[in-house]
């Protein structure tokens, strides 16, 4: 699709999705592309905050996706309920480091901090005055923390530096299960630099993938070895910022506005390239089916691509720089009344409004008068082909013969001129 700055919705996009977008200004926005009247309307769920209130992480708290965990740069966490559209819990964390990852296990909130700490916070129902407990030290720098959707007790984290390589922790015992090993030294016997900007589980607790600002994508299997089993690296200056994985594919975004898809069966080269970006990609999210890929970009656009055809399905301007995005299947009914009768009356009301708009449209009297004064060429009514018999065909032919053709009109004009000249003589 050609690059455009306008809001776009592909007519083939009919899925019922909801988008939640976190911005650098601290606001949380909701998009509902299912609304046919205005699919680009934005609902601000949170108001603008100060400079340190920008959203650094977004994730669903429960399997039913009824709550969103929001982490901010000023070391605060909020639990937003999608049923009541309000914040049900909010608390601060000691240390002041930005939040880079959130999870929930055994009734406790798991927080990953940018300074390398993993903290298990309050249990549901406990008093807010209870201090943080069970601090796990994962290093001195952390860029991202993610939880395994198949095994909730496992979390993976990665950051910048050799001591902040990919690690997998067991939250049940608070111990490390896996720590990656770097590649062998290069031909100058220098250590290969490490910077895992994003990590993710690939449909299994044993398979993980990482992407780096240094331009590599690595695939790990914790059952085989500590070093990556496959690796993609290129001489081109590609800096990967975000990652999403599903089935046999890994989707990554770069700081230069490029989004690639890799096949884990062969990481030698990418298999898909998605276009339409004009800024660095901040976050990627796949829907539950794995067919649609949602992306947030620094050019302030949220985009949805079809993963197989690479077609841009949806694009909308958000007015703020995007930091994190979420996608889920909509659980709302478009009309205000939940009953079927209410929906029917709502649809009839909308159609009546459209008819009123059409009837109240201004009429150009001069234009209508010009058409009324024009000569009618043929008064034949359209006849349905399926109901025409032989007699009808003959009638139609006789009527068609009466139609004035350009040749007949010229002949009559010449006859009229000759008669006029004879009268003068």
UniProtKB/TrEMBL annotation:
**GO BP term, pick one:** ribosomal large subunit biogenesis
Residues annotated as region Disordered? 383-425
Could you tell me which SUPFAM superfamilies the record lists for this protein?
Answer: Quinoprotein alcohol dehydrogenase-like
Q: Where is the composition biased (Basic residues)?
A: 408-425
Q: Which GO terms describe its cellular component?
A: nucleolus; preribosome, large subunit precursor
**PANTHER family (UniProt xref):** NOP SEVEN ASSOCIATED PROTEIN 1, WD REPEAT-CONTAINING PROTEIN 74
Q: What is this protein called?
A: WD repeat-containing protein 74
* Organism field: Glossina pallidipes (Tsetse fly)
């Amino acid at each position: 699709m050609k690059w455009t700055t306008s809001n776009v919705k592909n007519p083939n996009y009919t899925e019922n999705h909801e988008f939640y977008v976190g911005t650098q200004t601290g606001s949380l926005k909701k998009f509902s592309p299912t609304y046919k009247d205005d699919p680009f309307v934005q609902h601000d769920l949170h108001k603008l905050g100060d400079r340190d209130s920008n959203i650094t992480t977004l994730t669903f708290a429960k399997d039913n996706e009824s709550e969103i965990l929001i982490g901010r740069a000023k070391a605060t966490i909020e639990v937003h309920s999608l049923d009541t559209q309000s914040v049900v819990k909010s608390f601060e964390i000691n240390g002041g480091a930005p939040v880079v990852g959130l999870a929930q296990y055994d009734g406790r909130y798991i927080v990953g901090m940018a300074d390398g700490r993993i903290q298990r916070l309050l249990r549901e129902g406990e008093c807010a005055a209870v201090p943080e407990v069970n601090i796990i030290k994962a290093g001195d720098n952390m860029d991202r923390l993610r939880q395994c959707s198949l095994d909730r007790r496992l979390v993976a984290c990665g950051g910048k530096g050799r001591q902040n390589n990919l690690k997998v922790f067991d939250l049940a015992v608070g111990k490390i299960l896996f720590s990656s090993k770097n590649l062998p030294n290069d031909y100058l016997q220098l250590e290969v630099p490490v910077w895992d900007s994003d990590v993710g589980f690939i449909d299994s607790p044993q398979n993980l993938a990482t992407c780096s600002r240094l331009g590599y994508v690595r695939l790990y299997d914790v059952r085989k070895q500590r070093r990556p089993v496959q690796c993609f690296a290129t001489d081109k200056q590609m800096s990967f910022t975000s990652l999403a994985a599903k089935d046999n594919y890994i989707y990554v975004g770069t700081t230069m506005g490029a989004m690639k898809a890799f096949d884990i069966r062969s990481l030698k080269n990418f298999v898909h390239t998605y276009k339409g970006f004009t800024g660095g990609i901040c976050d990627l999210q796949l829907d539950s089916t794995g067919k649609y890929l949602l992306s947030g970009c620094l050019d302030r656009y949220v985009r949805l691509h079809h993963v197989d055809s690479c077609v841009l399905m949806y694009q909308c301007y958000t007015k703020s720089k995007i930091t994190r995005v979420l996608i889920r299947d909509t659980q709302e009914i478009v009309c205000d009344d939940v009953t079927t009768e209410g929906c029917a009356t709502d649809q009839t009301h909308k159609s009546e409004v459209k008819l009123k708009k059409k009837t109240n449209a201004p009429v150009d009297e001069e234009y209508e008068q010009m058409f009324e004064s024009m000569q009618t060429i043929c008064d034949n009514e359209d006849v349905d082909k399926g109901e025409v018999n032989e007699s009808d065909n003959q009638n139609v032919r006789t009527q068609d013969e009466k139609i004035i053709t350009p040749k007949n009109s010229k002949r009559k004009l010449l006859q009229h001129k000759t008669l006029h000249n004879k009268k003068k003589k």
